[in-house]
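call fold(seq) -> tokens
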Amino acid sequence: MSSAEGSVSRWLGPLQEGDPAAAQQLWERYFQRLVELARQRLRDAPRREAAEDVALSAFDSFCRNAGHGRFPELADRDGLWRLLVVITARKAARHSRDARRQKRGGATAEPPGGDAEPSLEQLVSREPSPEFAAQAAEECRRLFGLLGDAELEQIALLKMEGYTVEQIAAQLGYVPRTIKRKMRLIRTLWEQEIAP
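ret:
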């Protein structure tokens, strides 16, 4: 385990117990990446600050839900990043939808019960909108295209489907160390793409 991955894993437990220092560490590590992700999703946003607003809202939702114990299985930086991407993408889609409504003179809709911020359980349990599904598929195709290698694409896909390093290695006929090396390469390529 790298020191970066170890530090993220070390902060997740205290964050789930409400430790503000852990939240601060994760904020420093991920906020700018979330802003960049939101900026990519909000290409047509009228205000430049919109990406920061979306990233802030996504990080806040994550921290609040983590503090309520809603992510008991969250244990490493890969799972954390995937979760933050989903929350940020949904917040960006909602922001774009609401901005279009306001531009046309319509009101924004609140979730049932009047709670302006639905819980993560509500977000995750809903079917994705066709727009979000199309955006997610487009982003996946783009990220897989960056790999430029069918085997790296297969490893990334298997990992996304929840297979362990050992299971991927057995399936592809490699030792786990080789799969870990290839996964580091995938992570590096993708992180370079979304780096601020």
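Confidence is low (pLDDT under 50) at residues 1-5, 108-116, 122-126.
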